[in-house]
Amino acid sequence: MPTDYRPDGPMYARFGVGHLDGVAPSLVAFMKNRIGDGDFNLMFTAWRFDGAALTNQWKWKRGNGTMADGHNTRIVDLDGDGKDEIAEIGFALNGDGTLRYSLADEGVVHGDRFHIADLDPSRPGLEGYGVQQDNPSGLREYYYGAKDGTMLWQHAGDGVADVGRGMAADIDPRFPGMEVWSFSGLYNARSNRLTEPDTSLAPWPQLGLWWDGDLTRELLNDGKLEKWDPAEPKPSNSLPRLLSTWNYGAVNASQGQNPTFVGDMRRVSSGVSGRERSRGRRCGCRASRAPSFPPRRTRVAEPCVRRCGPAPRGARGRW
């Protein structure tokens, strides 16, 4: 293992798998530790296992750079050439470990959540959406081209704010593409316009999944599977509820120390039972019975899900 930052203590890590050369899988490691009570060291490495030996392909160190990281790492083919790149909340690396672009010049700093997907089907390529934590410029959220980091729009406010959650999903069929939202209102990503003028009626930006078989996404918030309806917009906790996970023995299904895996596998929500949480011996699993139309690729067959996933604060990684 690289020893570059060993004097500053052990490095916590999260991992993912990507086809960085378009042919064979590599293990990608995000590793980070703190310099005393100050800044953080950050290093990415890629590894290849050939069945007999594990070799280090490359190592990238942030050093004194201003490239911002977050609590998620995405391994995704950003330019459609069949080779995976590695994306963080404020920068992206090429598959060979070189810097592809940085969003530092656009004012992006550390944040808790970001998403990369085809948020606007009318625009070639993928787009990214992220939120900011205590950005001194007042930047709250931003939307950009994921291939080259082109900034498409930004929302800022007065003063400094910790925007701890941000979500991207298609929940309003009246507008093409996906919606994005944090706590400044529900926006259509493509148009940068509020789909619901009353910003207090946006749902909580936690997690999304397909549950009832239609084309729009449902929401998982603190153990509640909810459905946001643009015809009758309501905030979370006032939305029609499809399922309450605690009725099946689950505890907090969103944050804390309880592992939760949500996705179309097909459309499964899992959580550790409260009765066995301390022992970690019981896992509850709920699956939707609603058929999908049109048929949709399952989450376990989705490349981005297979290769990486968002890592909650303090987590060591999630596949």
Strand content: 25-35%
By helix and strand content, what is the structural category? mainly beta
End-to-end C-alpha gap: 21 Å
Strand order of the largest sheet: 1-2-3-4
Q: Shape, please? A: globular
Mean pLDDT: 85
Radius of gyration: 20 Å
SSE series: EEEEEEEEEEEEEEEEEEEEEEEH
Approximate helicity band: under 10%
Description of the molecule:
This protein has 319 residues and is an all-beta fold. Helices cover 2% and strands 34% of the residues. It has one helix and 23 strands. A four-stranded antiparallel beta sheet has the order 1-2-3-4, with no helix packed on it. A four-stranded antiparallel beta sheet has the order 5-6-7-8. The longest helix has 5 residues, at 303-307. The two termini are 21 Å apart.
Please tag this protein with its features.
34% strand; single chain; mainly beta; 319 residues; four-stranded antiparallel sheet
Summarize the structure.
The chain is mostly beta strands.
Secondary structure blueprint with pairings:
Blueprint: E1 12-18, E2 26-34, E3 40-49, E4 54-61, E5 74-76, E6 85-87, E7 91-93, E8 99-102, E9 114-117, E10 127-131, E11 139-145, E12 151-156, E13 167-169, E14 179-181, E15 186-188, E16 193-194, E17 207-209, E18 218-221, E19 224-226, E20 241-244, E21 260-263, E22 268-272, E23 283-287, H1 303-307
Antiparallel strand pairs: 1-2, 2-3, 3-4, 5-6, 6-7, 7-8, 9-10, 10-11, 11-12, 13-14, 14-15, 15-16, 17-18, 18-19, 19-20, 21-22, 22-23
